[in-house]
## 1
Amino acid sequence: MLSFNFILLGLSLASYTTAVPASYRHRREVPQEHSHEAILIDMRKQLAIANPQNLGDPVFSLLGAAAAAGGLGDTTDVNCLQQAVADQAFTNAKAANDVAGMTSALIFRTLERNSGSVGAASPNCTSVTATNPEIAALAQHQDPAGDGAQAFNKAVVLELAKQIASVGGTPTDALKSGTFAPGTIGDPTAKGNSCDDANDTAGCIETLKLRVDDATEDEINAAVAGVSSSASGNSTASAGSATASAGSNSTSTDTGATGECPGTATVTVTAASETTAAAATTAAAAATTTAAAATSTAAAGDIGDFGSCTVPQIEFGAGFDNRKETSFQPVDQKSYAHTSAQNVDIIMQFMCDTLTNSCAADATAKATCKTATAAADAASKGTGAQADAFNAAFGITTDFASLAVISNTGVTVSPGANPAATSAASPATAAAGAATTTAAAATTTAAAAASTSAAASGSSAIGDFGSCSVPQIEFGAGFDGRKETSFQPVDKASFNHGSAQGIDIITKFICDTLTNSCKADATAKATCQTAITAADGQTAKTGAQADAFNAAFGITTNFAADAVISDQGSTIQAGAAATAGASAATSAAAQATTTAAAAAQTSAAAATTSAAAAAATTAASSSSAASGANLQTFTGSLGGVTPPAVTDTKSGAQPFAVDGNATFSSLQNALVRSCDVQHNKCANAANSSGNKGDLTVTACGDQQTQCNAAAQSSAASARR
């Protein structure tokens, strides 16, 4: 009997599986390497992009050692072949900002490999470390008949869900990695409960309903609760979406399950009231969380015949699938059964694929779906405006743009657009932004939505950042549960990336995102490269690097004053004096660009260009708070650390100043930054004291949550 010791190197997990050539079948579990064929198909697509190690077909890596050798290419360890395939596929998908491709690569890494017999374990890779930490954190499922395997597989799935969430995918897609029910150990037929069909593009484990889920959706949602998500990439298909069901139990292709819906395109939709569930504490989302009676009046001939399915429509809000954050999902789960996703491309691609795979829609309907996708992609990323633009192409007017964007911690990232000027406003109705709206002709409304939902950005000396905010990096301990100090983007909605000790990982990601999804101009991209140079000129792994990067964008911070902490919680290097740290950052920026240095002297970014930030500026400017008064009302002080004061300077584009830190256009963002500064210093104090008693990094994190909630409340009160 096998005993599984969960030695998780950063949560890299050991594992096991089942298959080999025909000559071995008398002494092992029957083949199952094609059981998840949809994922294999995705892997082949990714390897076709780039395959520098000349790896063989991905299926080789799911075979036993003898057969797997045929796919080694330039690698040498058969036990690391599955990891190598997943790692290269992930690298290719990441370069293309393909969230679905990254998700498929993560799932593939955890699929069960064939082993010698029922209950036997497949060795984990120990000789090579994956290039991508997301892949390195994973291992393959093991034959569920083995001793301890089911508990092990559950750990694999929960870790997989975290990694999927970290790249902006749908965490519950982790369940697609599940294997079969346990076979009987010692069974001379070695049959187990598996299947193997290379011709079933959805995966026979799904088609035959043989997949056994290792965890519940509630367990997955709990596991990913603290994981930053919503990557800024463009998804080209939901994971394993070679067909409509694409490896998911929730996406049945049974066309008989829905009633006949002729393409008359008259559909009334009410956005689910649950969209406010997670955002109940935020004033931004409290007022308008439903778009009632949104009716499509487009003629069937204009938008097509959708066969057995309803006219596609997407909704946006918080609370879907028990998420705290805002996300997108199909309105009609009967025609388009898919869970929510923070990246609307995942939902749109699935719906457009379903028109072909199960609805039997005509060519016009499919073309309209592509038009809708293009319109949504032109709208501000991650906002309700994308759902509005998609729906408008089908003659359905909604006003999800007025909803606030909420993070996975329940924090308002950006307020909704002013309903009077929302991107969903239809030229055919003066009632846009009201609860009940009437759709105009599909093509006209789609064009209006696409043209007006783009970020209302103005260019400046540092550039136009398109749909994203001005880049900014913070430095401190406690990010993503780390003991050590690290760097991360401040605005996770625009630049979604976890923390890293090497700032180059963050700066490169931010600058790449300006090209890949923000639609920033050449000046903005050049400023970002200047910022990288400035950061690299500072002492590595210190807050001075973040200060130098930020200064290039005209943002003054003083992270150089923060101590550098090791992963053991020990202080490696004391922080620089506050004035010296600020001076070093400004000096570095001055060397890189005179314009940026001048902007830094004024402590204000020349432009925050996203539509969300513009809305935030409007809300903030209406604050009645007196200039000079401390607007930070939170009084928690673990370790004797209080949040720095926030004042309204009543001047410039970013009037709200955090003492000793940065300036912001939004009061709420300034208050949250004040909470962040307190959290960093609290975590530093906790690490320095050995995380004893009430002063722990966890307690500091809990205090930050309370501080953020107070910030939301204060900002909401100021707006009233």
## 2
Amino acid sequence: MSSILTKTLLSASLSLCLMGGLSGCQTAKNLIPGGKSKTTASSGGTRIKTRTVRPRMGVNEFLWRASLETLNFMPLAEADPFGGVIITDWYASPQAPDERFKANIYILDTNLRADALKVSVFKQVRGDNGWSDASVDADTARTIENSILTRARELYIATVDNN
């Protein structure tokens, strides 16, 4: 794995762990479809119950939020919460401006499971003829997947503990 990407991922993971209590990421909130209030009344007309109704996501919401939070240092090119696709744009670290990375995240299920997450990482290096594709260490995608799964479990536990 590229040492710059490793350092960036580790610092991002550390930041997420340190700010675990602040799980309300604004980016994640903007990309998770909002709900609308629904008011119902009883037959006697004296009891009113209001609740927020959110459209169901097509994928696991904890994996979705954890993916966005883990890769929040990379610019987003596309995010589809119903199809479970997150595609980042190319990201070049200021410490290594001659290499850049892009990630595709696919959330494949509504359950919080390791096999419901697929991460693909792409790398390019700048040479005399512009950007060209380069190989990525196989552990890079696995490291990102593990970071996302760890964060998703933290989000799930925080939700269970609050109920």
## 3
Amino acid sequence: MDDGAKRYWIWGQDRVASGPMAFSELVAAARRERLPRETWVFNDQNRVWLPAASLPELEGLFCSQPGVASVPSVGTTLAARPALRPGSLRRIKILAGLDEAQLAVFLRYVEVEHFQPFTHVVRAGEHGDAMYLVLQGELRASLYIDGQESILATLTVGDFFGEVSVLDQGPRSADVIANEPSVLLKVSAAAFQDLVREVPTLAAPLLVALSRAVVRRVRVLTRRYQDSIHFARVAGAVSPVR
């Protein structure tokens, strides 16, 4: 059996085996630092569980220091590694229901980004390919209508935005601008797809939480639309005094 035909399973921190995956997927996970050297990996060729760093086919992908992955090749892009404790992510509303092990796994799929006041995070109409979770700071979502900025929402610690872009990679619906120094966790569409494929038991509760949040927002928007229609009809029914 050649390397391309091998199939592997990974024993995750959620204590569930994920797989099967091809060798190329296993290498990609190691290069993105989503496969710690101590992770148990099962190879269906030799029928044995081994730590990732002990697999001959992954030789050279890990440093000699325990728990640290090396940069595997020139040109490989690795996500910024967040220097965060998993428990600190519980301030994010959609992550509050995850346990410590699940949060530790989730950290492998995010990037940390810092924004200064008056800096755009996203712009309306631009291609969207990531969602953001607010870890620190404050931002505003707004649109320019008739040349004036109209603030749609203020985003604070625990909030998130851009979740639709993770699903459809469509254009952004509004600007999001930092009001003060802010720290955000970025989840790219590609990283989220990797999460769904590699750790489905973690992706499932996240998708449920996202769905509930989207439903709440739709209900709020529907109510606002109803109120605006009611106001317009009432205003139109009142004739000016002549």
